[in-house]
Amino acid sequence: MSFLRNAAKLFNSVYLFTWDTCIALANLIAPNLKPGSVIPHGRPGAGGKWPEFVPPGKGDSRCCCPALNALANHGILPHDGRNIKFTEMTHAVQTSFNLSSTFSIFVPTFAANMLHRNYKTVRQIASNILIDIHSSQDKFDLADLNIHNGIEHDGSLLREDARFDPEQDKPSLPLITELFASATGKDAAGNLVFTHADLSRASGKRRTAARATNPDFTLNKSQKGFASGNCASLLLVFGGRVADLEPFLTEERIPEGFESRVLARWGLSLLVFNLNIFNIERAIKEEAVPTVMAQNETA
Ligand code: HEM
Fold first, then answer.
1. GO: which molecular function terms (predicted)?
2. What is the pLDDT of residue 134?
């Protein structure tokens, strides 16, 4: 059974990445969407009009991801952050940020596997009736994503490490202030923006500091990929624009009038996203400073 399951997973991955390459190529040929028409008509955020922002209240579930928290704060995902279907998350991120269908399925599927749940309701025929089995297995609460060393990892730009902030559901304002101080770019309209180099530099600084102060610090290769993926999302979805990122990162609020900077007709592909991750990650330099563990050992 487990052989069949693994074979099905491999087939799904090959299918998804092949389809993603087709999307990336089609995006190269097709004309871009026009600014102002990125979000489909009738969807939250169309024409820059977002549903009302309501900060989380007592008992609401929140996580380490500013984008998912913001979608819940605007009621695009359930405001209490509970019992969210993985497929609902796919739909919400795809239409709100103009991600490709492949991207929007890949990350939620990864999250479902991480939580040992099913991305979709499993259906089975029993006594000639189609029934849903494990129907609670295709849902999650936002806080479920905070499992340390799942996708959540040390050395993040917006959260203290889990050792110092086990909840991981709120941004760290001192870290975010430091992050904004590292923006040096200007876009065509003269707005302050983050560049790839800014985010590589900020990540290197943050990882160096976290490694030096957190005795539990770990960051493996795939977590580095997620970390640089988060930076890539700030550059691609927000164009690195500091004015839009301030409310998004500090309050987890989508600013009125905001529209994804991804103009590709079929949304941001995993291929383009991964190329950006590669560029950010390879430029990250950590300073060689003694770690807390090494200091403790020599004391
Ligand atoms: C598609 C489903 C998504 C899932 C399951 C997800 C999950 C996560 C998780 C678990 C983290 C914590 C990683 C850490 O420790 O730093 C995270 C961080 C982050 N996510 Fe998401 N995310 C999703 C979509 C998005 C989207 C669409 C965006 C941008 C528009 C985004 C932007 C970010 C950013 C900027 C961080 C960095 C947090 C930090 O450095 O502290 N995410 N996400």
1. metal ion binding; peroxidase activity
2. 55
